[in-house]
Amino acid sequence: MFLYEDGVVYMEEKIRxxxxxxxxEILNQLNNGPLTTSEIGNAINSNWLTIEKFINELKTDGxxxxxxxxxxxxxxxxxxxxxFYGLPFxxxxxxxxxxxxxxxxxxxxxxKGITPARTILQKVAVELIEKADKQLxxxxxxxxxxxxxxxxxxxxxxxSTYEPIRLSLDQIKILKDLINEYYQKPTKYAKLxxxxxxxxxxxxEKENNLLDGLLELNCKKIExxxxxxxxYYPIELQNSFPLFDKFIYCTTILLNLKENxxxxxxxQKIKEIFYLLWDVITTEYFxxxxxxxxxxxxxxxxxxxxxxxxxxxxxxxLLLIEDLESEVNSINPEHIDVPMDEESMEIxxxxxxxxxxx
Amino acid sequence: MNWFLDMCxxxxxSEVGGKNYQKTVNFVEHKxxxxxxxxxxVSKDNLPKWIKRQMAITNLVENKLSNDAYNLEESEDxxxxxxxxxxxxxxxxxxxxxxxxxxxxxxxxxxxxDIMFQRINYFLKNLIDKEVVPIKEIDWDLKSAIFIFxxxxxxxxxxxxxxxxxxxxxxxxxxxxxxxxxxxxxKWVLDSEPHLAKKYAKIPEIRYIQKM
Lengths: 358, 212
Known about the structure:
A: 358 residues, B: 212 residues, 2 domains
């Protein structure tokens, strides 16, 4: 029998729990990632009605969020979940990642008396994992908006509840060297150092040339950089590629407009869409990398979170790019600069070859 | 006048500086009250497929020139290509192999392709007045009979669409293909198939952009 009276719930096993106790248990269960309503109910030995009631209260209080809603399931996660997108990483991954962040922050505080900036902290964590031996290599490193990162973010109030990971003497030495190297360095330094490594050319091109081009309103630089980015485009990110490809087409045409003033007017739009597109591409990258760290039992949930996040972002960007494409296709070609050098003429000749037989 | 355009007219319009470019631009610039008509087979099927194959060619150029170990034949893009597209690919790759700055060459290839696509898209969106003959309504017998003479599926589909539409409204077929598109071919087709000759009594006039 389940009774709820004056804030006290009488559970089946006759253990009296206050509403606050139940809510606290629900939150504790969600410490290790999102769960369905029935998983929460089973874990705290309570029925669906009770769980639903307290979940709603916790939602109203802003403590938990509904991550996925389908006809088959409702999934909830903590609003302050450390895992990006509240992904269902295992308890071990969460713990190890959090303990590593804690160890770095503790060491940084000991050495320099302050806490490092979050991006620097993530870069140091990734570099430490890459330089360290097998033990740390088990901690996932994933590509995201600003390059490689751990699966969780740093929140002092929560990370401080974890014990720091035990580092070997060699690892401590590497960490101290990294702290000395990164201390007082701008975030850009950390990004460029990481992007300089193999397989990060896509990020490097964006950081090094595209952003400068957009800042300087240098059309040539932007166009060259975008084409280079398409050369470095990660082949595994197939969902975002059609968007990226359409975007490159639009920008190539707009940046070759003869009229400079109109071209510059479009730059702001190009910039805005690019940032949204970057968000889509790097979100896909994050989910792509995260996929291999998700337990098979949590794959359905993982995929649902992925679809929810990627679909809404992609459809938003698609609308903007399609609008831009429609504008581009309405521009009188006479207003577009066509290269007339020998190489360009030959390229066009080859591409148009055999038109009569088409 | 109602000009029924073959797909090659749009491609000629996109190839700035090409051998048929100036004639095509002159023709377009004198459009005035004339109607430009295209069949739905071209706008919804043949042209999008051609564009897709051209994109595959430049993707392959990009992949191969930025990574010599890239295996062309194993790629999905390569499987999309017709033999004639593979020749284009090889031509573009051989130019790429001879230049010092491969990335610049890739960039140039993509830029020129985008400019060509924009011109085709502009033509479709702003210069075409009517898209006619749904693909499903193309007369299968007529198309098959034309195919016997041309041995070219896309020509057969476009010509069949043109002949069908000409029964409703007089058109002039405009093409650059002097080999397959001629009135003798159409007459032979209809002479050899009396039931088609009866059904398609009016044969459209054919003109060539090269002679405009």
